[in-house]
Amino acid sequence: MEVDLKGKRLLIMGGMRISCEIVRKAKQMGIHTIVADYYPIEKSPAKVIADEAVCVSVTDVDAVTNLIRQEHIDGVMVGFNDMLLPYYADICTVNGLPCYGTREQFEVLTIKDRYKALCRQFGVPTIPEYNLDSPDIRYPVLVKPSDSSGSRGISICHNRQELLLAVEKGKAASKNGRVVIERYMNGREVTVFWTFQDGHYYLSALGNRHVKQNQGDDVIPLPVGYTFPSVFLPKYRAEVEDKCKAMFRHLGIKDGMMFMQCKVEDGICYLYDIGYRLTGSLEYKILERVCGYNPLEMMICHALTGHMGSEGIARKAKPEFSTPAFNVSCLCAPGTIARIEGVDTVKQMPEVEDAVLAHVPGETITPEMRGLLAQIAVRVLGSVHEREQILPVMRRIHETIHLISEEGQDLLLPGIETEDIKGYI
């Protein structure tokens, strides 16, 4: 980064394992890291590696304010959790610290029925919806809470009886008690990544999100990998990019980053989910390797200075990519992980930028976690020189990693195959 942040004090809200990514990057930048949540340190992985760990509820604005004043904190990071975004905004406002978004923006962009209505207003394609009593419901449909993430509370319904049960399940998983009923589109997926800086909006990447039905028809398909760039990029740039930018201007977005998950039908990318925050897919590692800028670094810089802090992003943000890139998601079947094999070998591959553990030995994937993103145990990111190399490399990675249970079984679920990827990069 061009800005010297050495010695600055950064508060990270929440110590979940993926927040270790923020801690590691901040420490590389010479920043003093403080992780806060109400969990004991042994249940908060980011606390273990931070410079300081504090036991305080990060939804208690007054308590966090006292912490900020006592510890002379220079900035706050919220990380990967939608639920914490409004508290993050309030904490920053009360303490006069930089915040990349406003409470109002976070509220709109975390409530599905609100942001889908906004998309329709600006002509951004989004999956059609039904009301519970709509006479024209065509099954199957997808029911999901209006304000949750991580695939929690989601059901596929094939008839009225399943729909009524799914609505109650979705409401129970929703803070506001509302659900969205959508047409179930069981086709190709893409994820669109944006980076925002000083009111300028950069389409960073558009990647295929390869989901796989590898746990039965009753479970939401989960991603086994991403490939970049997608063949759908030219059409998206021509038909949707400017509509998204108009929507961002309407919202008053200035800084930060965003992902948009879409289903693809007839070449059209229909949005179904938005996150105005860091992404669990860790695509910033790919952007740094292929394009030369790192949105995580930019977000850390903003937290401490109020500016995204990367020069030349207009020149670097090229979603066409100079080389094809990938993200392998290793899914774990229910069971307790006794050991994880092959990660160090994978990290030595020249095509690999990083391999990140989402679970560690001793942790359990419960049957209730089937169909949730929590089943992802390892993420491996990197790039290749030629398009023809991408599938063999991704398969070699998947074949090298093993998630061994206490009973000696490999819990690794089937990964990416030729039919998943052919013709889409």
Q: What does this protein structure show overall?
A:
The protein has helices at 20-28, 45-49, 61-71, 85-95, 103-110, 112-121, 160-172, 233-239, 241-251, 284-291, 295-305, 313-316, 343-347, 390-400, 418-421, and strands at residues 9-13, 32-37, 52-55, 75-77, 129-130, 141-145, 155-157, 179-183, 188-197, 200-212, 222-228, 256-265, 268-275, 325-331, 335-341, 352-357, 364-365, 376-383, 402-405. With 425 residues, the protein is α+β, with helices and mostly antiparallel strands. The strands form four sheets. An eight-stranded antiparallel β-sheet has the order 13-12-9-10-11-14-18-16, with helices on both faces. A four-stranded parallel β-sheet has the order 3-2-1-4, sandwiched between helices. It is globular and about 55 Å long. The mean pLDDT is 94.
Estimate what percentage of residues fall within beta strands. 25-35%
Shape: globular
Largest sheet: 8 strands, antiparallel
Report the span from N to C terminus: 31 Å
Fraction of residues in helices? 25-40%
Biggest sheet, spatial arrangement of strands: 13-12-9-10-11-14-18-16
Give the class from helix and strand content and strand pairing.
Answer: alpha+beta
Report a brief summary of the structure.
The protein has 425 residues and is an alpha+beta fold. 30% of the residues lie in helices and 27% in strands.
Task: Lay out the secondary structure.
Elements: E1 9-13, H1 20-28, E2 32-37, H2 45-49, E3 52-55, H3 61-71, E4 75-77, H4 85-95, H5 103-110, H6 112-121, E5 129-130, E6 141-145, E7 155-157, H7 160-172, E8 179-183, E9 188-197, E10 200-212, E11 222-228, H8 233-239, H9 241-251, E12 256-265, E13 268-275, H10 284-291, H11 295-305, H12 313-316, E14 325-331, E15 335-341, H13 343-347, E16 352-357, E17 364-365, E18 376-383, H14 390-400, E19 402-405, H15 418-421
Parallel strand pairs: 1-2, 1-4, 2-3
Antiparallel strand pairs: 5-8, 6-7, 6-8, 9-10, 9-12, 10-11, 11-14, 12-13, 14-18, 15-17, 15-19, 16-18
Helix pairs in contact: 3-4, 4-5
